[in-house]
Amino acid sequence: MLDLTYRPRRLRTSPMMRALVHETSLEINDLIYPIFVVPGSKIKEPIDTLPGQYRCSVDVAVEVAKEVAALGIPGVEIFGIPTYKDEQGSSAWDMSQPVQQAITAIRHNCPELIVVGDVCLCQYTSTGHCGCVEGHDVDNDKTLPLIAQVALSQAEAGAQVVAPSDMMDGRVAMIRETLDDHGFSKVTIMSYAAKYASAYYGPFRGAVNSAPEFGDRKGYQMDPANRLEALREIELDIREGTDIIMIKPALSYLDVVREARDNFDCPLAVYNVSGEYAMVKAAAQAGLIDEKRIVLESLTSMKRAGAKIIITYHAMDVARWLLEK
Ligand code: PBG
Ligand code: ZN
After folding, report:
1. Which of 120, 218, 252, 313 to mutate to test the pocket of ligand 1 (most atoms within 8 A of CB)?
2. CATH number at residue 116
3. Does the C-beta of 201 come closer than 6 Å to ligand 1?
4. What's the Cα-to-Cα distance from 163 to each of 100, 136, 213, 300, 318, rounded to whole Å?
5. Running DSSP on this structure, what letter comes out for residue 31?
6. For the chain: N or C, fewer Cβ within 10 A?
7. Is the CB of 212 under 6 A from ligand 1?
8. Catalytic residue at 195?
9. Residue 55: strand pairing partners
10. Do the domain assignments include residue 213?
């Protein structure tokens, strides 16, 4: 097909020519912005491990959500720091806790914005694990009803999307059934379908104080070495009724994103996680890289790999950069 007179540089001769042939666009419509909520009021506390990000009380979270909506970003994902932790993680489904309160308040003040609840137990359990600990293991089937209860409480608070990040087997089916039984058949599930046991979550665990008290998460999160297993995880979640599949982290797993895009027809999300963000921030602060160009290039690579939705701490910056173009 290619003869030797073909000169690829002809298509790079001017900005308009390059715009005409460019294959991938990053759009504000692709973005979801994570918000961390804490108890109290008028709190906007900088997170040391995530420069530029804050722990916000519900009133401040509402103001942030208004800014997000004004930029045209379609959604926010809510992460919480509770007032108490116990063995079961019962503050995760307590309607008086910051997550449920923030969901309701943001829905009330920003009716257009999509509010996603992160469904897990690790910020809420005294063990710091994503489920019920039995001996030195997390018991899958004892955890499932608790995870479903968290999702239900978020739906009751007003979340249009629930995003289980616990990696228990069978949680999507149990959440779907529980939501439907309670009249929430319209609530969408965005499952962390292939979530790897990753060192890239370090800054997040610092931000929400959710590091496991003993051991690690390798008994439930995936081995970074595995690609085919991701396809099995994704297929299971789709069969159990997920609406959107997510791969997490993003940058080190773009091959998995491409596989997912080629094998399944479900909307595909990536989570550009805390470690990816923190490394960019550190390098930018040290004057080693051009932050804006690095971020736009990285997020474009996620789109090129096949993702549609990008959950990212850079979302507000990216929206401003795209608007100024
Ligand atoms: C909770 C959860 C985690 C993240 C999202 N949801 C932490 C973990 O699994 O340890 C990580 C997000 C990030 O690193 O930005 N299960
Ligand atoms: Zn967890």
Report:
1. 120
2. 3.20.20.70
3. yes
4. 14, 26, 24, 23, 23
5. E
6. N
7. no
8. yes
9. 36, 45
10. yes
DSSP class of residue 209 equals T
Quote the CA–CA distance of 88 and 138 in Å, as a whole number. Answer: 11
pTM over 0.90: yes
- Kindly state the helix (H) or strand (E) to which residue 145 belongs, with its residue range: helix 140-157
Q: What is the DSSP string of 34-95?
A: EEEE-SSSS-EEE-TTSTT-EEE-HHHHHHHHHHHHHTT--EEEEEE--S--BSS-GGGG-T
Which one is catalytic: 248, 281, 303, 308?
248
Q: Is 53 in the pocket of ligand 1 (CB under 6 A)?
A: no
Q: Which helix or strand (DSSP H or E) is residue 312 part of?
A: strand 309-312
pLDDT at 209: 86
Mean pLDDT per 10-residue section of the chain, whose length is 325 residues? 89 97 97 98 97 98 98 98 96 98 98 98 96 92 97 98 97 98 98 98 91 90 97 98 98 98 98 98 98 98 98 98 92
248 a catalytic residue: yes
Domain assignment present for 6: no
Catalytic residue among 44, 66, 85, 195: 195
Q: How far apart are CA 44 and CA 51, in angstroms?
A: 13
Q: Please indicate, yes or no, if residue 299 is contained in any of the structural domains.
A: yes
Q: Is the CB of 274 under 6 A from ligand 1?
A: yes
Q: Write out the H or E segment, with its range, that includes residue 294.
A: helix 291-305
Tally of domains within the chain: 1
pLDDT of residue 211: 87
Cβ(307)–Cβ(268) under 8 Å?
A: yes
Where in the sequence is the domain holding 81, given as residue range(s)? 24-324
Return the CA Rg of the chain. Answer: 20
